[in-house]
Amino acid sequence: MHRKWLQAIRKGVNAWATPVRPKTYHYPEAVRMRECLARGSGKLDPDTPLHKLRFVVLDTETTGFAPYGGDEVIEIGAVTVENGRPHPEQIFRRLVNPGRAIPIEVCALTGITPEQVAEADDLCTVLLEFLPFLDDACLIGHHLGFDLEFLNLKLRRFCGQTIRNPGFDTLNVAKALYPHLGSYSLDALLSAHGIEPAGRHTALGDAWLTARLFSMQLELLDVMRIKTLGELQAFLKLREDHSMALSVPSC
Q1: Which letter, b or e, does each residue of 25-49 get, where b requires 16 or more Cβ atoms within 10 Å of its Cβ?
Q2: What are phi and psi of 108, to 5 degrees?
Q3: Which of 163, 217, 165 is nearest to 190 (CA)?
Q4: Which of 32, 66, 96, 124 is 20 to 30 Å from 59 at the Cα level?
Q5: What is the Cα–Cα distance from 171 to 177, expressed in whole angstroms?
Q6: Can you tell me whether residue 122 is helix, strand or coil?
Q7: Residues 34, 161: contact at Cβ < 8 Å?
Q8: Pairing assessment for the beta strands 138-141 and 55-62 based on DSSP bridges
Q9: What is the pLDDT of residue 108?
Q10: Residue 142 DSSP SS3
Q11: What is the pLDDT of residue 243?
Q12: Crossing angle of the two packed helices 203-223 and 170-177, in degrees rounded to 10
């Protein structure tokens, strides 16, 4: 009896210890998403000149700041930057039905109303349109991780994968270029560059403003003779390491 009980316990422990295999998705939308995501997962040549790269500047509007707490995307906006400048004819803008109420303060800030999103597609459908637009471009955003967290959370559920395109955050670029600036908020950076904040707090508006900011950052990088993808990556890492070293108190 004791032996059978011990075997049962061991069997239970082994079953509990077995790693959970990721779910396999077979429906057509997931397959299409995976195909699109695969195009952006390749490594870029570090010797690629920055002016030859296609950048996609991304921004989202959401119902709040907690993707794991029930907040949802209500708008996706994106702008292409090529040859160092934004292209107004290469833009992406879609409203998203969040499947939940939009807080009054968010409606006031973004101008997006429940009536507008009521007829919009859900995020899965919108991502099926956005991912081909993104393709294999290098991603740009201000607080880019915030936007990607919302999108990748849904992508994991839809197809078991995430956006893996290489990317840069204009916040980090700004910290490297202007280490003594008092604030690195988008509003502060727009003001420092003399960019009028027209369209602020809409996904496409913020994407366009961030694209203009990034375009000016590229000009300054060029003056500093930082001309390739690898040189930019090395520059950001050097400034980050230097900043971390300065923040460590001396004994």
Answers
A1: beeeebeebbebbeebeeeeeeeee
A2: -65, -40
A3: 217
A4: 32
A5: 10
A6: coil
A7: yes
A8: parallel
A9: 96
A10: coil
A11: 63
A12: 30
Amino acid at 214: F
Structure tokens at 81: 């930057």
Q: What is the pTM of this model?
A: 0.86
Tokens representing 17 are: 């210890």
The reported pLDDT for the residue numbered 16 is 32
Determine the 3-state secondary structure of 140 from DSSP. strand
| Residue 130: predicted pLDDT | 98
Residue 201 annotated as catalytic: yes
State the pLDDT at residue 248: 43
Contact 203, 61 (CB under 8 A): yes
Q: How many CA atoms lie within 13 A of 164 on its CB side?
A: 16
Q: Where are the domains of the chain?
A: 29-226
- Identify which of 19, 27, 25 has the alpha carbon closest to the alpha carbon of residue 160: 25
What's the first-to-final CA gap in the chain, in angstroms? 64
Mean pLDDT by 10 residues, the chain (251 residues): 40 35 66 95 93 97 96 98 96 97 96 96 95 97 97 95 96 95 96 96 97 98 97 94 55 33
Length of the chain: 251
CA dihedral 129, 33, 200, 236 (to 10 degrees): -140
Query: Are residues 97 and 118 in contact, defined by beta-carbon separation less than 8 angstroms?
Result: yes
- Strand extents, DSSP E, the chain: 55-62, 73-82, 85-95, 138-141, 167-169
Per-residue model confidence (pLDDT) at position 12: 38
CATH code for residues 29-226: 3.30.420.10
Q: Which of 87, 193, 201, 242 is catalytic?
A: 201
